[in-house]
Design goal:
The radius of gyration is 20 Å and the shape is globular. Strands 1, 2, 3, 4, 5, 6 and 7 form a 7-stranded antiparallel sheet that branches. The chain has 2 domains: 153 residues, Sandwich (Jelly Rolls); 109 residues, Arc Repressor Mutant, subunit A. It is built from 11 helices and 7 strands. α3 runs antiparallel to α4, α5 crosses α7 and α8 crosses α10. By secondary structure, it is α+β, with helices and mostly antiparallel strands.
């Protein structure tokens, strides 16, 4: 058996639409190449499930609102449910193996002691959003070992593998709970930024083909233009208009790969006001013209 690649398909709210596992076994395993350049990586998204991963080759950068981790081979990460995140190449890029699971797989239901005592506190408002696993401490080494085992079980799918996955997830969560302290009340600034960012990214991904300016993006979160700029820089490290351009270019690349639309029309459909502006911006991000990109299908 083999693992799937993690191809992200999101709705206008950046919620991933792809189901992970099945309704009766909500856990999926993935093997994903993170390539360098704007065309590589995993775009900003979120899902109701928790994600665990480790790097098998090269280096990657994991982004959460107000967080950024560079992970090398052997290192990994834990990303909570409902948290915006993306993964890009660091340097030449790398490869990751991951598992995405719903916590009901280990809780057994909302009314169990496992949910109330050990899972809900870590998922609660203000709890940790994610955690890099560098292996510097033994408990992190143990978590990384469990992640590798979980992904291996999901890959092999041998008889009874569901029991093995659930057992490993239980040990992983117990380890996580023992070494992280839920924060009562949390950080209101980070929480507010994350909520505002979701609203503004929703607008951009819904209306990227329309004329959008800073004022319109800011209004999506009911904030002023200056606060909009600060919010983007605090959370994902780039400006709203930089994100808009990147998203337009990524959508243009998708149309170039999967349709036969004329290059000029692709640019127009993705919000560029002229063919020259489209070509110039595309070359900036991909180091190649749109026509050459289409021919190469890279």
């Amino acid at each position: 058996m083999s693992l799937d690649a993690c191809d992200v398909n999101v709705n206008p709210r950046q919620m991933e639409l792809r189901p992970h596992g099945t309704a009766d076994f909500p856990c999926g395993g993935y093997d994903t190449q993170i390539r360098s350049g704007e065309k590589g990586g995993v775009a900003w998204h979120w899902h109701e499930e928790t994600e665990i991963l480790y790097v098998t080759e090269g280096s990657v950068e994991v982004f959460l609102p107000d967080m950024r981790w560079t992970l090398s081979k052997g290192e990994g990460a834990f990303i909570h449910a409902n948290v915006l995140h993306s993964i890009l190449a660091a340097g030449e890029g790398g490869k990751i193996r991951s598992a995405v699971f719903h916590t009901r797989l280990i809780s057994g239901g909302q009314d169990t002691v496992f949910q109330k005592k050990y899972i809900a506190p870590l998922l609660a408002y203000g709890g940790i959003k994610g955690l890099p696993l560098t292996g510097e401490e033994q408990w992190q080494k143990d978590m990384l070992a469990e992640i590798k085992e979980i992904v291996r079980f999901l890959e092999k799918k041998e008889e009874g593998y569901e029991w093995d996955v659930r057992d490993s997830l239980g040990r992983l969560w117990r380890n996580l709970y023992a070494h992280t302290k839920p924060v009562e009340g949390g950080n209101s600034r980070k929480t507010m930024d994350a909520q505002r960012l979701k609203s503004m990214l929703e607008l951009i991904q819904k209306e990227y083909n329309e004329p959008l300016d800073l004022a319109r993006i800011a209004r999506a979160a009911n904030i002023g233009e200056r606060e909009c700029l600060r919010c983007f820089h605090r959370t994902i490290g780039i400006s709203p208009l930089q994100y808009l351009l990147r998203y337009r270019v990524s959508q243009a690349a998708l149309l170039l790969r999967e349709t036969n639309l004329p290059v000029a029309e692709v640019g127009m459909r993705c919000g560029f006001d002229s063919p020259s502006h489209f070509a110039q911006t595309f070359r900036k991000y991909f180091s190649i013209t749109p026509s050459a990109y289409r021919k190469g299908k890279i």
